[in-house]
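Journal club side-thread
Mid-discussion, someone asked how the predicted structure for our own chain would compare to the paper's figures. Pasting it here so we can look after the session.
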Amino acid sequence: LSIFLIATVCHLSHAFAPNANMTPAQSRIRSNIQLFSSSSVVEYDTEIASCKEILRRAAITKSEDPDLVLTSLESLEKTMRQKRKAQGDSVSQQVLDNLTGEWRLIFTTGTKKTQDRYNTKINYFPLKALQSFDATTEPMKIENGIYAGDFCMLRFNGDFEFSLRKSKLEFEFDQITILGFTINLKKDEAAKIGASTGLGSDSNVKNAEKGKKAFFNWISADEDIATARGGGGGIALWQRIQ
């Protein structure tokens, strides 16, 4: 219904564009239409800013209540989805434009399998996990690593594609580096390693067996934080490192 109303607003706004023959009544209608349209945008942005404020604090302090962080992530996900439907691909394009850089995983609910294994929802991630993206190259590049201090114990490298319509990032790792030794991977090997270590989900293995790629449904990315829901159902928060 909200999408229908916004579409109707846009149509009427065009119909009542300023012209020399516009009556006072038409002018008032046009002003009301513009006010409604801008208020919808403000409503989205206000809710998004409120959620991000909590998530930024969580990324910095790691002391915000986990339930509040999860609620903020889910609310941000819902509002960004509504904003994409209302405003189109430009919302996802902004996410992609901001994605290039290095990000540290701060908070994650984990995959369903990981939750079941430990009988809990993982919240603040205890290890140093860095993920980097480069959307300026062709193909676009992704890297995912686990570190002990500055030493990389395990790192995956590969390519990714990004659907603006769905804000969906599909990726495939073709290389793994373990304690400094690099090994080339076959199409389904990275998914199996990820699922066995808890870094990935069983759904990635199933997708690989069907010739499909692992994916994130990307929610947001800005100068400070990024958020996404993985193919295994977990939702996560990252902090920009560079």
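Post-session note: Strands lie at 101-108, 128-134, 140-148, 151-163, 168-178, 181-184, 214-221, 225-230, 235-240.
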